[in-house]
């Protein structure tokens, strides 16, 4: 191991003098958990290593992409091979088509109508771009301006989607963002989640002007808040009855909740018009996508009037990482993730129960989070009403024991196929002391 020459505190002080808050994405600053961020130098499998040479079992997973574990050999090799052929061409490559074909084949549900809802895919570089473009496309296709979004859902940081957003916006307790013109914010109607009546009401009054509803397939940016049974199907029906589209944001859940994302396992089938993907689809490199029917997607330039472009779109290294990741995500990999996830969630629940700490394990497929509440939160208001003050001491105790949790109670715990018995055992061993800290 390389000699330790610095500390996390020293790196954070230096970073803060060079970058706003010392970070390039807000929740990395650890502000809400009262700790110094770990400055990482390497990662492998279920573990990450910081500048002090300390190793942690990781439950952040690069915020989702590291579903096979960090630096999976097949993914690293694919990226190295691609790099040896050139870092990017600004031209089309066969790999992009291969990735599009793979996603189109994978997002399939034989008993549904349509069985294969993605006929065309556009690759972009971030989830923010994917949702931003999906919204522009929905507006262009319907010739309407209004968007419906749910409080507590996070769809990236484009202007129109930051109102009452989850993730870092929730962690920092912001109502939205400064710098968003009121005229743009007014085009987004924010309503409570999991309440079909409110969706009906908003369409009854504004339906003729609504281009689309955008929804997290299973919300994971206010902690996990699963959709009530049939919710996605109900809002699809309402949107379609009014000539509006449903944009299903699977940036976080796509290829994680299952081979066909949350859409593939939602107990009530439904037909979204556009899907957005990110995180897992890029295997750890910057890649995201949006997809839908040919009729809709072909309204994008160069065929149609809705413009979108990107210097790095479909970058060959990112495509190679995405392809290698999706190919390795077989039934056995999902079974490993599901089993590890269940074991960790159950152990966390047992540890908190033993200390008398009110909590709920919130689950959506293999995704889970802990809410410090008596009853399961079902929307942003009930999420915010939990005893969130219990999370920072819980988080710090886990970190002290060598387990890296997401640094916010409003984030999911990301388990990977590399979380083997030893990694799960380390997490389980750390939980009783963390539960005691949460109880204090
Ligand atoms: N949509 C969802 C559901 C997300 O969870 C995120 C990021 O966490 C985004 C969109 C934005 O993706 P990105 O951070 O790649 O811009």
From TrEMBL:
Its main location: cytoplasm. The modification N6-(pyridoxal phosphate)lysine is found at residue 279. Coiled coil: none annotated. Belongs to the class-III pyridoxal-phosphate-dependent aminotransferase family. HemL subfamily. Its cofactor is pyridoxal 5'-phosphate. It is found in: Cytoplasm. It holds the Pfam family Aminotran_3. The lineage of its organism: Bacteria, Bacillati, Actinomycetota, Actinomycetes, Micrococcales. Its EC number is 5.4.3.8. It comes from the Bacteria. It comes from Microbacterium deminutum. PANTHER family: GLUTAMATE-1-SEMIALDEHYDE 2,1-AMINOMUTASE, GLUTAMATE-1-SEMIALDEHYDE 2,1-AMINOMUTASE 1, CHLOROPLASTIC-RELATED. The keyword Isomerase applies. SUPFAM superfamilies: PLP-dependent transferases. InterPro entries: 4pyrrol_synth_GluAld_NH2Trfase (IPR004639), Aminotrans_3 (IPR005814), Aminotrans_3_PPA_site (IPR049704), PyrdxlP-dep_Trfase (IPR015424), PyrdxlP-dep_Trfase_major (IPR015421), PyrdxlP-dep_Trfase_small (IPR015422). The keyword ATP-binding does not apply. Pathway: Porphyrin-containing compound metabolism; protoporphyrin-IX biosynthesis; 5-aminolevulinate from L-glutamyl-tRNA(Glu): step 2/2. Transmembrane segments: none annotated. It catalyses: (S)-4-amino-5-oxopentanoate = 5-aminolevulinate. Keywords: Cytoplasm, Isomerase, Porphyrin biosynthesis, Pyridoxal phosphate. Homodimer. This is Glutamate-1-semialdehyde 2,1-aminomutase.
């Amino acid at each position: 191991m390389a000699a330790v020459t610095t500390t996390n505190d020293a790196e954070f002080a230096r970073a803060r003098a060079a970058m706003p808050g010392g970070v390039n994405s807000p929740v990395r600053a650890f502000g809400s958990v009262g700790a110094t961020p770990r400055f990482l130098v390497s990662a492998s499998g279920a573990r990450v290593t910081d500048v002090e040479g300390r190793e942690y079992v990781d439950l952040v997973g690069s915020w989702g992409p590291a579903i096979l574990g960090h630096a999976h050999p097949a993914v690293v090799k694919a990226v190295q091979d691609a790099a040896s052929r050139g870092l990017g061409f600004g031209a089309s490559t066969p790999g992009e088509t291969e990735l599009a074909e793979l996603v189109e084949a994978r997002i399939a549900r034989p008993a549904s109508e349509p069985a294969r809802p993605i006929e065309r895919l556009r690759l972009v570089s971030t989830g923010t771009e994917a949702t931003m473009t999906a919204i522009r496309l929905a507006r262009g296709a319907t010739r309407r301006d209004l968007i419906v979004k749910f409080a507590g859902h996070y769809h990236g940081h484009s202007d129109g989607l930051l109102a009452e957003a989850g993730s870092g916006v929730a962690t920092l307790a912001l109502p939205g963002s400064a710098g968003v013109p009121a005229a743009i914010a007014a085009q987004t109607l924010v309503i409570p989640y999991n309440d079909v009546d409110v969706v009906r009401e908003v369409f009854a009054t504004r339906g003729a002007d609504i281009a689309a509803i955008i929804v997290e397939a299973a919300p994971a940016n206010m902690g996990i808040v699963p959709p009530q049974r049939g919710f996605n199907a109900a809002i699809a029906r309402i949107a379609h009855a009014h000539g509006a589209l449903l944009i299903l944001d699977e940036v976080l859940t796509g290829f994680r909740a299952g081979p066909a994302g949350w859409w593939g396992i939602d107990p009530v089938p439904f037909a979204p018009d556009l899907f957005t993907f990110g995180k897992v689809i890029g295997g750890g490199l910057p890649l995201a996508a949006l997809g839908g029917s040919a009729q809709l997607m072909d309204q994008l330039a160069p065929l149609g009037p809705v413009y979108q472009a990107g210097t790095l779109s479909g970058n060959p290294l990112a495509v190679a990482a995405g392809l290698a990741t999706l190919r390795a995500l077989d039934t056995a990999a999902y079974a490993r993730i599901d089993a590890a996830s269940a074991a960790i969630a159950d152990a966390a629940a047992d540890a908190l129960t033993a200390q008398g700490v009110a909590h709920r394990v919130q689950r959506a497929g293999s995704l889970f989070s802990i809410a410090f509440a008596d009853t399961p939160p079902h929307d942003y208001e009930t999420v915010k009403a939990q005893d969130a003050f219990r999370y920072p001491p819980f988080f710090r105790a886990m970190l002290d024991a060598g387990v890296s949790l997401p640094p916010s109670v409003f984030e999911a715990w990301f388990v990977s196929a590399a979380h083997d018995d030893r990694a799960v055992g380390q997490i389980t061993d750390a939980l009783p002391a963390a539960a005691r800290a949460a109880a204090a």
